[in-house]
Amino acid sequence: DRLVAAAAPLTDGALADGHAVPLLANLGSPDEAAGAVALGAEGVGLFRTEFLFLGSSTAPTVESQTASYTALLEAFPGKKVVVRALDAGADKPLSFLNDAHEENPALGLRGLRALRVKEQILRDQLTALAAAQAATTADLWVMAPMVSDAEETEYFVALGRELGLKTVGVMAEVPSLAVLADQVFRSADFVSIGTNDLTQYTLAADRMLGSVASYQDPWHPAVLRLVRALGEAGATAGKPVGICGEAAADPLLAVVLVGLGATTLSMTPAALADVRLELSKYTLEQARALAAAAVDASTASGAREAAEAVAV
Ligand code: PEP
Ligand code: MG
């Protein structure tokens, strides 16, 4: 009957040939977990932790962070939950972390760069995450934002392991990290591509600036080729490459991203249904054909048209 149908679990993300593509949620607070589960999220692909720090003049204690992370993980028993270390700076400055005036804050001391300077803040956050990991059954993965190369990756992975985290990776948001993807996978357990920042930095166009908004298009073949490089390096290393930027919420682009080697897609929960439906129309071979057409284009609109021309 209708009530039973409404309560039935949604199918997991998969291509037409059965190739699984786990569909995960981007969340900004533990309160959003139940809604994401109701929309069929198979886990969390990006948990933004800034809400714990914003609007405060000091960093939250290990105890209060542990309580928040535990509440999040408890909503996903046995499921994958990817938590991002504090991404302060640029559009999200914090008085106790980003103290210098910067002319170009997007190119400044943000993300992991800022945390490394104030390492105790990072240590406290990772310690709280390890405590939540020990207290719950969720499969916790932790990643750093705004990472530039293998040396920064090694720093973060080593610190995460020292503090007891099981699965530690990095976001691919800076083009240099994508160019050096093979080196990054020597230490990272996984990479998650933040297509919002990866597009901003690849096209050198401030994502907050309306006058250059037309450059902020993840269909641009330069961005797609960096995704391809990361996908190939991940496949060679036998390690996952997720997508957690807005690009994953565009159904046709989601197919292209899988064709380029993305192993999971994470998005705003409202987009899950449309992406799940679109993926179900393509085999992996067809997704690869769409991707091959898109990366050969010379503009973002050209890449979309090329993919549409081979779409089912
Ligand atoms: C991204 O840059 O794509 C991303 C997911 O992080 P944010 O949007 O929070 O910068
Ligand atoms: Mg980002």
UniProtKB/TrEMBL annotation:
<comment type="function">
    <text>General (non sugar-specific) component of the phosphoenolpyruvate-dependent sugar phosphotransferase system (sugar PTS). This major carbohydrate active-transport system catalyzes the phosphorylation of incoming sugar substrates concomitantly with their translocation across the cell membrane. Enzyme I transfers the phosphoryl group from phosphoenolpyruvate (PEP) to the phosphoryl carrier protein (HPr).</text>
</comment>
<feature type="domain" description="PEP-utilising enzyme C-terminal">
    <location>
        <begin position="14"/>
        <end position="281"/>
    </location>
</feature>
<keyword id="KW-0418">Kinase</keyword>
<keyword id="KW-0479">Metal-binding</keyword>
<keyword id="KW-0963">Cytoplasm</keyword>
<protein>
    <recommendedName>
        <fullName>Phosphoenolpyruvate-protein phosphotransferase</fullName>
        <ecNumber>2.7.3.9</ecNumber>
    </recommendedName>
</protein>
<keyword id="KW-0813">Transport</keyword>
<keyword id="KW-0808">Transferase</keyword>
<keyword id="KW-0762">Sugar transport</keyword>
<keyword id="KW-0460">Magnesium</keyword>
<keyword id="KW-0598">Phosphotransferase system</keyword>
<comment type="similarity">
    <text>Belongs to the PEP-utilizing enzyme family.</text>
</comment>
